[in-house]
Design a protein that fits this description.
The structure is a homodimer of 202-residue chains. Chain A is of the alpha/beta class. Chain A contains 7 helices and 9 strands; from the N terminus they run βαββαβαββαβαααββ. The first copy, chain A, is globular and about 50 Å long.
Chain lengths: 202, 202
């Protein structure tokens, strides 16, 4: 099955602007992508990257400026079967990826914290995506309206997408991959304050 | 194996004070506890509740005013083997609970978002807890220093503890149990705003 990793290449991870410069956001995005690609390969897949602008990574990259919905829906229409895994999931491991492909269902959804859909596997020719808003709700509805057999995987590593400064602590807590190394080299460390753990720059 | 669910019975979930009255916090705490107990029973366990003050629930309750560390460490010293699952995990399901008990390891840890430890199973007589700060780091260290075989489960449902108003959206998105019903009856609904999903009261 074709496995695509979409990446924003032009001005990635804008919500990290309060703590990272534009160059740093690009470097950190590429570090997270490297972790995702390694986990996917470790589970036996051959991922392709589709980016809105060129990105440095160890996989075939297609530059495509369409929005995420148009892009993924064109691929779904073209291929019939498709897996999509987001690029900002640096906690992914090969067993987690295996868990995504394991259920024998037409559509397998991996919810993200906050209502997103961080990955899916579709074996139904008519499944389509809508990433706006609480996309996990839309994707459940789309799959059900097709009469597709739909299931969800229960994975913290798939649920943990890194969008905002408060998400960085998860990387420091749970990653020994490229993204964790990048943050540590950039001077970030865990700070425990009043029961909350944050990543702060020394 | 003995399975304990610790609950704060006196003034529970104070971080939800901005959106819930004291009576509502108690009711919501008991709804989440009901969901946790049902999931544990559904996986074949007989959970016991240990609370700092009496709580309404369908399980044996022991009132014990000791702090969490003292309480759990006394039980660990007494029993040798122990499982602890927090009471604020309303997304738990029987398969998720089975996943916690499945690994053949001395110590199985379930990390919470933000560095907590939302559940554990210990089969090592000398394992002890320290819930302050980023407890998942401490628990990894404690287990390793004992030479115990330690593993972590990858579960979003076990990672999602409900502490703050922003966590309530996860309940509305993913629970059809007592906690989700309680929130909906109390007038909470999902609001999608600028890519973020929140639970707000109508």
């Amino acid at each position: 099955m074709r496995l695509v990793v979409p990446v924003s290449g032009s001005d990635p991870k804008t919500r990290l602007s309060p703590v990272l410069t534009p160059d740093e956001r690009r470097e950190f995005t590429e570090a997270m992508l490297a972790d995702v690609l390694r986990a996917l390969r470790g589970a036996g897949h051959s991922p392709e990257v589709v980016a809105t602008a060129s990105v440095a990574c160890d996989a075939p990259v297609t530059v495509d400026e369409r929005g995420l919905d148009s892009l993924i829906n064109a691929l779904l229409a073209e291929t019939g079967e498709l897996a999509v895994v987001m690029a900002d999931l640096p906690l992914l491991t090969p067993p987690t990826v295996e868990g995504l492909f394991e259920p024998d269902a037409d559509v397998v959804l991996a919810p993200g914290t906050g209502g997103g859909t961080n990955a899916f596997v579709s074996r139904h020719p008519d499944f389509r995506v809508d990433y706006h808003g609480a996309s996990i709700l839309d994707h459940r509805d789309i799959a059900r309206e097709l009469g597709a057999n739909v299931t969800e995987v229960d994975s913290r590593r798939l649920a943990t997408d890194i969008d905002e400064p408060e998400d960085l602590a998860e990387v420091l807590l749970h990653s020994d991959g490229a993204a964790g190394d990048w943050l540590r080299n950039a001077g970030f460390e865990l700070v425990v304050d009043d029961g909350r753990v944050t990543a702060e720059r020394a």
